[in-house]
Amino acid sequence: MEEATAPLVVKPSNIKELAESPDLRFIPCNYVHKYSCYSNSSATNDIDDSDSIPIVDFSLLTSHDSHQRSTAIHHLAKACQDWGFFMVVNHGIPENLMKSVIDCTSEFFNLPEEEKHKFTGKHVLDPIRYGTSFNTCKENVFFWRDFLKVFVHPHFHSPTKPQPYRDIMLEYSEKLREVARKLLGGISESLGLEESYLDKDLELESGLQIFVGNYYPPCPQPELTMGMPPHSDHGLLTLLIHNQVGGLQVQHQGKWINVNALPNSLLVNTGDHLEVIESPFHV
C-alpha cells in the first residue's frame, strides 16, 4: 500500500533559520515559484550575460572642466532614457566604508533571533523594520529573502547592534545622499533645467531616505525559488552596493541582463517618481 505524504508548507519567520536547517534538502512548496526565470526554459533564452549596463563616471560629472561635465551629463541622460539603470564609478565613497556597511549588515542578520525580532514591524512606516520575503501578509508563495529597512533621513534611526553599526550607517547614508543629489543635479541639467531644480522642487532636504539590507542565503533548489520578484522601485533613485555575488538582473528591451557590477561601484536604479518627473520632458 502506498503512503501519501502532504507537501511541506512552512509559515515564514525568517529565511536564514529555514536555510540553516540541518535536514533541509528540498524547499517547502510555498517557496516554489512556477514562473521562476530558472524553471521556465523559454525565459532562460531571454537572459543576456553581457555587462553592457551604462557607466557614469562621477568624477567627470562633478568636474570643473565644462567639457568633461557636459560629456558626463550626456552619458547620464542616455542611461536614464535608454536603460533606467547605470553603474557609478569614482563616486568618492571610501571602499573600506562600503565594505563596513556590508560586513555590519551581515553581522545584523547573524544576531540571535530574539535581537532581530525586536524590529519585526507591523507597519511599512516603522522606522526600523526586520522581516522576510516581500509582503507575507498578502503572499501565498514566499521569497528567499530576509530584509532590514531603516529610515535614515530626515530623522536618523539605526539598530543598536552590532555596536559600530550606527556610526557606519550614519556616515554612509550622508555620503550616499550627497552622491544622489549630484546625480539628480546632472539629471536636472540633462532635462534643460537648472542644476538645483529637482533638489528645490522636491524639497530633498526633508525627503525620505531608506537604507535596506537584503540577505539571500544559499538555497538547496535555487532553480525553483526567487530572492525577489520582478519589480520597479518607488521613489527617485535606488543606489545599491553589489557584493560581487551573482544573481541580480535588470530588464532592458524585454531581456534580463545579468548585473556584473564593477568593484566599488554603485548600481543606480531610476525609480517610479523620477520616471513620472522625467516623462513630460521627453515628448
Automatic annotation (TrEMBL):
Residue ranges the record marks as coiled coil: none
Example GO biological process: response to molecule of fungal origin
Keyword Oxidoreductase set for record: yes
Entry-linked Pfam families: 2OG-FeII_Oxy, DIOX_N
Molecular function terms, GO-annotated: 2-oxoglutarate-dependent dioxygenase activity; L-ascorbic acid binding; metal ion binding
Domain Fe2OG dioxygenase intervals: 206-283
InterPro entries in UniProt: DIOX_N (IPR026992), IPNS-like_FE2OG_OXY (IPR044861), IPNS-like_sf (IPR027443), Oxoglu/Fe-dep_dioxygenase_dom (IPR005123), Plant_2OG-oxidoreductases (IPR050295)
Protein keywords: Iron, Metal-binding, Oxidoreductase, Vitamin C
Similarity annotation: Belongs to the iron/ascorbate-dependent oxidoreductase family.
Protein name: Leucoanthocyanidin dioxygenase
Species of provenance: Solanum tuberosum (Potato)
Higher taxonomy: Eukaryota, Viridiplantae, Streptophyta, Embryophyta, Tracheophyta
